[in-house]
TrEMBL record, chain A:
Pfam families assigned: BPD_transp_1
Similarity section: Belongs to the binding-protein-dependent transport system permease family.
The entry's keywords: Cell inner membrane, Cell membrane, Membrane, Transmembrane, Transmembrane helix, Transport
UniProt protein name: ABC transporter permease subunit
Subcellular location as annotated: Cell inner membrane; Cell membrane
UniProtKB/TrEMBL annotation, chain B:
Alphabetically ordered keywords of this record: Cell membrane, Membrane, Transmembrane, Transmembrane helix, Transport
Protein name in UniProt: ABC transporter permease subunit
Topological type in the membrane: Multi-pass membrane protein
Organism: Streptomyces erythrochromogenes
Biased composition (Low complexity): 1-20
Localization: Cell membrane
Transmembrane segments: 30-52, 91-111, 123-145, 165-190, 211-239, 272-294
Lineage, opening ranks: Bacteria, Bacillati, Actinomycetota, Actinomycetes, Kitasatosporales
Annotated ranges, domain ABC transmembrane type-1: 85-291
Family: Belongs to the binding-protein-dependent transport system permease family. CysTW subfamily.
PROSITE patterns: ABC_TM1
UniProt xrefs under Gene3D superfamilies: MetI-like
């Protein structure tokens, strides 16, 4: 198409907007780094970073968060992958149901959800103390590995995982893939495992990354239910060791961002059209 | 990670007649969805039901007898709870409106920029920043503009009466994830504005201002409004940032609920936290009820 009007020339307002935005988004990050290395009265040093590993509670809380992430990712994928693949293959009538179910957690703010979870957990001691169910309630609240957090995180991750997997499945023709594999003599499980899943690699990764980022940063649920994964630990030490807490935040930010950037790069290279409808 | 086993896998004999395989496949297909539905029924349904039940259950402080009624809900609309609800709505509305305007400006600057790389960079960064929130965000701002923050010290902001742990401080922090969210939401709509529309308006003698007032803004309106309520919803539900930053110096409904869950309530009011949660769900539901139709409407122009 002929471009009759000239492309807009670099306007001063645009430079102003972009410069302001850059300042607003970069200064807090730069200031955080300065805050951690520049100790008033002592000059610049990296103590806040070198001491992280020795600080009490750092490794256990980080490990707990990582274990919770792994378990949550496993639960989410085990639940969602068969369901979304089946929706594409044979159970398309159930699609609206699954769509609604997977969007429900968006309507309930995390804190309201925690209030509900807390109430359910209180049923244990109050009403069920004589029944075998009580043991279940105790088991899911084991402080070494609180299963109840895995359940809660899996619920919170459902909307993101559903969107990621659905976008991935939309990009490939599952039905044809399965039929082609079956024609070549593969059994249905074989076709699903060897033909469909490898094609979903991007979507699986994206769902896992989003879940990982969610669990690593999650604070509300864990704090209010009285557990102590990473995010809760940072807040707990922030009172006594402000610099260390900021240093750890900066590190965790960088790691999370790296993950998400990798994901963004990966996603845009694989399927440029599917990125627009993710949000 | 090991590839998850697919449960859709009732092994169908390859040689079976087509009709039977079809029926069996349909049944096994439905079976693959069942675990997901069961899981949500338990992990999401139970807490939701408990919240509803508790929100309507009033316990008599003297006798301990429970009865159904609206006591908790009416209590949640009074006194400190009402202040917190109003505070949350005010904070979310202010930051959502500001973020909508700033996000629109930024997105427009990026969309009209001749630099392709700039656009990619801003959109990727927005995707990352929009997911940013919670504790690290609070700490980044505390380190920057808090009482002993770097900028506070360097610029001597303390003397000017600057206080991060206030309403406007929170607005400033919330913009950090709301503006990128708006950029992501509005960019497709801005891309949908055709050059021909501007040319047509100019050929008919319209000024720049008239073009925006009569063409661009009406087309953008559903996306803008949809984005606005989406931002409102995410600001309304935010808890970790505020909790890590201000404690309870700004009245917010999420902080009140957390306080009540932790046991800081009067006897007989234990369930007010659940009533407040229900209030929040109602607001969030309302937001979605506005957002979804608007999103569908804006899709019309972007097709």
């Amino acid at each position: 198409m002929a471009r009759l009007t000239a492309r807009p020339t670099p306007a001063p307002w645009r430079a102003l907007v972009l410069a302001t935005a850059a300042l607003y988004f970069l200064v807090p990050l730069a200031a955080s780094v300065v805050f951690t290395v520049d100790v008033p009265g002592q000059g610049v040093n990296l103590d806040a970073y070198t001491r992280i590993l020795d600080t009490e509670g750092f490794l256990p809380s980080l490990l707990l968060s990582l274990e919770l992430s792994a378990a949550t990712i496993a639960v989410v994928l085990l639940l969602m992958v068969p369901a979304t693949v089946a929706l594409r293959l044979t159970a398309s009538k159930l699609r609206p149901v699954v769509e609604v179910v997977c969007s429900l957690p968006l309507v309930v703010p995390p804190i309201a959800f925690v209030a509900g979870v807390g109430t359910v957990l209180k049923w244990g001691p109050e009403r069920l103390s004589r029944t075998p169910l009580f043991q279940t309630f105790v088991a899911v609240q084991n402080p070494d590995f609180p299963l109840v957090l895995v359940l809660a995180y899996a619920v919170m991750a459902l909307p993101f995982a559903y969107r990621a997997l659905d976008a991935g499945l939309r990009a490939i023709d599952v039905r044809t893939l399965v039929e082609a594999a079956r024609s070549c003599g593969a059994s249905l499980p074989h076709a699903l495992l060897r033909a469909v899943l490898p094609n979903l690699r991007g979507a699986l990764l994206s769902a896992s990354f989003l879940t990982l980022a969610l669990v690593l940063g999650e604070f509300t649920t864990a704090q209010l239910l009285g557990f102590r994964p990473f995010a809760v630990w940072i807040v707990n030490i922030s009172g006594s060791q402000a610099q260390m807490s900021v240093a750890v935040s900066v590190m965790s930010l960088l790691v999370t961002w790296l993950l998400l950037l990798l994901l963004a790069g990966f996603g845009s290279r694989r399927a440029p059209s599917s990125t627009t409808d993710r949000k | 990670m090991t590839p998850p086993r697919t449960a859709a896998a009732a092994p169908a004999a390859p040689a079976a007649p087509a009709a039977r395989t079809g029926r069996r496949a349909r049944r096994s297909g439905a079976l693959a969805v069942v675990p997901l539905l069961l899981f949500t029924a338990i992990a999401f349904g139970l807490p939701a039901a408990a919240m509803l039940d508790g929100a309507f259950t009033t316990r008599d402080p003297a006798t301990g007898a429970a009865s159904y009624g609206l006591g908790n809900l009416t209590a949640s609309w009074q006194g400190a709870y009402l202040t917190a609800l109003v505070g949350s709505v005010k904070l979310s509305a202010t930051s959502a409106v500001l973020a909508t305007l700033l996000g629109l400006l930024l997105a427009q600057a990026v969309v009209t920029s001749p630099l392709r790389a700039l656009r990619e960079a801003v959109l990727t960064a927005s995707g990352v920043l929009a997911n940013f929130g919670g504790v690290p965000l609070a700490f980044a701002f505390v380190a920057t503009l808090g009482n002993s923050g770097v900028l506070t010290r360097e610029l001597g902001l303390a003397d000017t009466g600057w206080n991060l742990y206030s309403f406007w401080g929170l607005v400033l922090v919330y913009l950090y994830f709301l503006v990128p969210l708006m950029v992501l939401t509005i960019t497709p709509a801005l891309d949908g504005l055709r050059t021909q529309w501007r040319e047509a308006a100019q050929n008919n003698g319209a000024t720049h201002r008239q073009y925006w007032q009569h063409v661009a803004l009406p087309v953008l309106a559903p996306s803008l409004l949809g984005g606005l309520v989406l931002l409102f919803g995410s600001a309304f539900a935010a808890y970790a940032t505020a909790a890590a930053m201000v404690g309870s110096s700004v009245p917010l409904v999420t902080l009140q609920i957390a306080d009540a869950i932790s046991g800081n309530v009067l006897i007989g009011q234990e369930n007010v936290a659940l009533a407040l949660s229900l209030d929040m769900v109602l607001v969030a539901g309302l937001v979605m009820a506005v957002y979804l139709p608007l999103q569908r409407r804006s899709a019309r122009w972007l097709a």
